[in-house]
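Researcher: Here's the sequence for the chain we discussed earlier.
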Amino acid sequence: MIKKNVISVAFIACMCFSSLLATAQSDYKTAVGLSLDFGSGGTFVGPSLKRFFTERSAGDVELLFGANITMVNLFYQYHGDIENAVGLKWYAGIGPSILLGSGGGSGIAVRPLVGMDYKFKDVPLSLALDWRPYIGDGDGFLPGRFGLGFRYVIK
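Model: Thanks. This is the structure I predict for it:
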């Protein structure tokens, strides 16, 4: 079972990040910053990187820490414009979360997500807020999980 999970995670990661060198057409191409994953089950905080592959598709990598657990999130996101809201986009996506416990325990989860991303017009900052339920081993299903991202935009 663990071998199958590792193969699945590797496949998803390759799919999500195979286009890292593609030219993006979005409001921004790359952003780095701080992400929070919070709600039922604890709070995790750490660095993140978001990179647009095309105008509508992006990858988001997070390395988060909390409660003696390190969490690695690898998300693929599909973005769409919100009419009459310059800089604001909706997104939906999915990706794996890999949890590594300080006591040697580990876990894996599937994380669907829906949210909004806002890029300030004259300031190199973006904000993101999403709902990202946890579906995996250990805690099972945690519907009350959310993400918040504060990022510096690199064009």
